[in-house]
Specification:
Layout: E1 12-18, H1 24-33, E2 37-40, H2 41-48, H3 54-63, H4 76-83, H5 87-111, E3 116-120, H6 128-132, E4 136-141, H7 144-155, H8 159-167, H9 172-178, E5 181-184, H10 189-202
Parallel strand pairs: 1-3, 1-4, 2-3, 4-5
Length: about 210
């Protein structure tokens, strides 16, 4: 892991990574409740793939009109079911979406009037540090069995679907190797919030 970089008055950019079921969105919600600015790649993707956006036409060209609902909207759950059962389709989807998402996230970060900006990036890669000007990456981690249980109970997935989604992502060990900090989230929200509070205090970012 990298040495901790303390906040000294400059705008700080901290990436939040985490696999499905790890609780990354819970961390984003908590940071926003504390009035920190948090930009979520999943939300950016939803905005860019709204009806009428150019990205939708590109996706239809690549995958066909079957990815649209009868109302003409992008059927994101259907797209997810397709790409997470077909590695080639997943590579194609990422190649189409990562560029526009990254550019929009960089635009929002550059326009932000804040002392610290958090950016949630599920598929974090080391090159994101330079591409997005990231100072640190915090990885939200959970044991795979806990993730499967959450996906089944909270999202209504079958156990097989949950395991397929997890298996198509990088492992905890791979994500940890890229991280400056690891946030384990195997227990409850109170413990998760306490860990976030601790990291903010360490960097002098609490109560800014």
């Amino acid at each position: 892991m990298s040495q901790v970089t303390r906040y000294r008055g400059e705008v700080k950019r901290i990436a939040l990574a985490g696999g499905i079921g790890a609780g990354k969105s819970t961390v984003v919600d908590y940071l926003r409740a504390l009035e920190y600015l948090a930009i979520d790649a999943d939300e950016v993707y939803r905005d860019l793939s709204a009806t009428g956006q150019p990205l939708v036409s590109t996706l239809v060209d690549a995958f066909g009109r079957a990815i649209l609902t009868p109302e003409g909207e992008l059927d994101r759950p259907f797209v997810a079911s397709v790409v997470f059962s077909d590695p080639t389709a997943l590579i194609r989807l990422n190649a189409i979406t990562h560029g526009p998402i990254g550019r929009e996230m960089r635009r929002q970060m550059d326009a932000a009037d804040a002392k610290v900006v958090f950016v949630a990036i599920p598929l974090f890669r080391d090159e994101h540090r330079a591409q997005l000007g990231i100072d640190e990456m915090w990885s939200v981690q959970v044991n795979p069995e806990v993730a499967v249980e959450r996906l089944v109970q909270q999202r209504g997935m079958s156990e097989n679907s949950a395991r397929a989604r997890i298996d198509n992502q990088v492992s905890n060990a791979e994500r940890e190797a890229m991280a400056d900090e690891v946030i384990w989230n195997n227990t409850d929200r109170d413990a998760l919030r306490s860990r976030i509070d601790e990291l903010l205090r360490e960097r002098g970012l609490d109560g800014y």
